[in-house]
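Title: Comparing notes on inverse folding

I've been comparing how different people in this forum approach sequence design from structure. To keep things fair, I'm posting one structure and asking everyone to reply with a full sequence. Here's the target:
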């Protein structure tokens, strides 16, 4: 018999939650795009962490190339219009390369993700992905990396289906409306401060699982924070209100004791 206290829906962010896409996907794809265009630029792991402060791929490349205007491509591209056209083309190439990477199945799904999704499906909890990243990439991650059985049950809300990206709650509001569930009965899994803010603004509970580049962000607003899903929690832990929220189990991150259970303090 179904436990009525299960959440009505479990909503996953994509990048950093299903797969650590920034470190081992997007960064690699940017570098490959530079190489294919004969550009002598390679973004390292640490360097990319700084570049991520600029949101959006085109904007990120623009900010970076502006730091080295005396070398190609900006050495030759001096006016805004030609730079804009170049960035658009580069971004399309990078997106294609990123999708090739996903389709190759080489990116690893983060620990515990498939298990938790399967538990939710078995418990009758709706599952969806809510990401304001490129729709094709998100759908591919679900289909190729999570497999057909999950993809059939997992609704994807992605790309430009809402006008405002996270931290706007729009994508989570859209998901709750479309799935016909109450926001208060949704649990969101996010890896970043921006995603956390989006889930919270939609009135949902948010579990943070930190990713390579988001570890150390301020997650004080989260209901609970972990390094990963791993073996740290299952669908039975996400009941409402449930002791999980009041006394988060061991395994959560020790981030400056900033981890809080709902109403339970530290
Ligand atoms: Mg994310």
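Reply #1:
Here's my take.
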């Amino acid at each position: 018999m179904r436990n009525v206290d299960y959440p009505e829906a479990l909503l996953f962010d994509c990048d950093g939650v299903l797969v650590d896409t920034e470190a081992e996907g997007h960064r690699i794809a940017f570098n490959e795009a530079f190489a294919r265009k004969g550009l002598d630029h390679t973004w390292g792991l640490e360097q990319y962490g700084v570049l991520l402060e600029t949101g959006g791929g085109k904007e990120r490349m623009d900010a970076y190339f502006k730091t080295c205007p005396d070398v190609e491509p900006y050495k030759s591209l001096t006016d805004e219009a030609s730079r804009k056209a170049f960035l658009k083309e580069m971004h399309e190439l990078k997106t294609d390369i990123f999708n090739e990477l996903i389709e190759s199945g080489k990116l690893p799904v983060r620990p515990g993700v498939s298990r938790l999704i399967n538990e939710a499906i078995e418990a009758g909890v709706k599952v969806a992905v809510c990401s304001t990243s490129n729709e094709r990439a998100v759908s591919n991650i679900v289909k190729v990396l999570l497999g057909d059985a999950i993809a059939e049950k997992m609704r994807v809300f992605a790309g430009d289906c809402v006008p405002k990206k996270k931290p706007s709650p729009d994508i989570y509001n859209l998901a709750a409306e479309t799935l016909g569930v109450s926001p208060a009965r949704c649990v969101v899994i996010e890896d970043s401060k921006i995603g956390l803010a989006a889930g919270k603004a939609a009135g949902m509970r948010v579990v943070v699982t930190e990713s390579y580049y988001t570890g150390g962000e301020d997650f004080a607003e989260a209901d609970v924070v972990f390094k990963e899903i791993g073996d740290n929690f299952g669908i039975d832990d996400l009941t409402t209100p449930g002791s999980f929220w009041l006394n988060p189990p061991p395994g959560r991150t020790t981030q400056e004791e900033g981890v809080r259970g709902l109403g339970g303090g530290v």
